[in-house]
Structure to design on (272 residues):
C-alpha cells in the first residue's frame, strides 16, 4: 500500500521491520519493541533525518545499512544483540514546567 | 504529523492548571486536527472541565522554500499572528519546531516588549534533532525563555539550553 493513516496494526504483527530513516517510523517501531533495520539513502547524506538513525545505531537499538548492503545485513544479522529502547519521560517535562510556574 | 505527535506527548502529563489550551495550526495542515481532538476527547474523560480551542494561521514556510520568500511569508504570518496572540494573551506558549511556531512566538515576544502581555515561551526541540538545531530552533534559541533539547550533544553546543533527557 502507498499510504495508511496508521501503521500500528502492521507493526504489532511484524517480526522484523525494515524502514527508511524517518523519525516517526523508527520511533513507532522501537516503541513496539520490534527489531528494526534502517536503510539509509546514500544520496541524501546531508539529510538531518539521519541524525536520529545514527544515534539509535550508536545506542545499539537498530541495525543500519544502505540499499546495496541490505541483503548482506539480513544474512548476517544478530537481532538478539539489539538493545531495548527505553521510552521517553514526559513526566520530567511536566515537573520542569510546574517548577517554572511555581506549581509544585 | 511528527510535530503534533510530539507536542501531544509533551502535554500528556500536564495538570489541569495548563488550561484552556489553544492550539495553533497551519492552514494547510490536514492531519493534526484529528489527532488533537482525539487527545482532548480522551483528556475530557479524566478532567471534565477541560477546555481547548483551535486556530489556524497561514503556513510561514513550506519545506525547502527559498530564503528570501521565506522571510516574506514569515513576516506575513507574524502580522496574521499578532491579533491572535493579542486576543488569547497566553501565559505560556509551548512549541516544538514547526515553522508555524516562529511567527506565533515572535508576535508574543513583541507583545512582551510593548508591555502588553508577558508570555513565557518554552521551546522543545524535536527528538529528531540530535546534533544540529532546526531552523526554528536556531531562531527561537534567542527569543525563548526556556529552550529544551533532548540529546546531550545539543546541550554542549547550546549552553543556554535545558537538557532533561528524552521527554517524548
Amino acid at each position: 500500500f502507498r499510504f495508511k493513516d496508521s501503521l500500528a496494526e502492521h507493526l504489532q504483527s511484524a517480526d522484523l521491520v525494515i524502514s527508511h530513516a524517518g523519525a516517526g517510523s523508527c520511533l513507532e517501531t522501537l516503541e513496539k519493541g520490534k527489531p528494526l533495520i534502517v536503510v539509509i539513502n546514500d544520496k541524501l547524506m546531508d539529510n538531518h533525518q539521519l541524525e536520529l538513525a545514527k544515534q539509535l545505531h550508536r545506542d545499539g537499538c537498530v541495525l543500519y545499512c544502505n540499499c546495496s548492503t541490505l541483503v548482506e545485513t539480513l544474512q548476517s544479522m544478530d537481532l538478539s544483540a539489539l538493545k531495548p529502547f527505553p521510552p521517553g519521560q514526559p513526566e520530567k517535562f511536566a515537573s520542569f514546567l510546574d517548577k517554572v510556574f511555581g506549581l509544585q | 504529523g511528527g510535530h503534533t505527535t510530539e507536542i501531544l506527548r509533551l502535554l500528556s502529563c500536564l495538570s489541569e492548571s495548563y488550561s484552556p489550551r489553544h492550539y495553533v495550526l497551519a492552514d494547510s495542515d490536514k492531519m493534526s486536527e484529528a489527532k488533537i481532538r482525539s487527545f482532548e476527547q480522551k483528556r475530557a474523560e479524566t478532567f471534565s472541565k477541560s477546555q481547548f480551542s483551535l486556530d489556524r494561521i497561514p503556513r510561514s514556510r513550506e519545506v525547502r522554500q527559498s530564503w528570501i520568500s521565506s522571510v516574506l511569508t514569515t513576516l506575513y504570518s507574524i502580522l496574521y499572528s499578532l491579533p491572535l496572540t493579542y486576543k488569547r494573551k497566553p501565559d505560556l506558549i509551548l512549541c516544538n519546531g514547526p515553522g508555524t511556531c516562529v511567527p506565533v512566538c515572535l508576535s508574543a515576544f513583541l507583545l512582551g516588549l510593548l508591555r502588553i502581555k508577558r508570555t513565557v515561551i518554552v521551546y522543545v526541540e524535536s527528538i529528531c534533532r540530535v546534533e544540529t538545531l532546526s531552523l526554528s530552533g536556531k531562531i527561537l534559541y534567542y527569543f525563548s525563555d526556556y529552550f529544551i533539547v533532548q540529546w546531550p550533544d545539543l546541550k554542549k553546543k547550546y549552553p543556554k539550553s535545558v537538557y532533561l533527557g528524552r521527554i517524548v
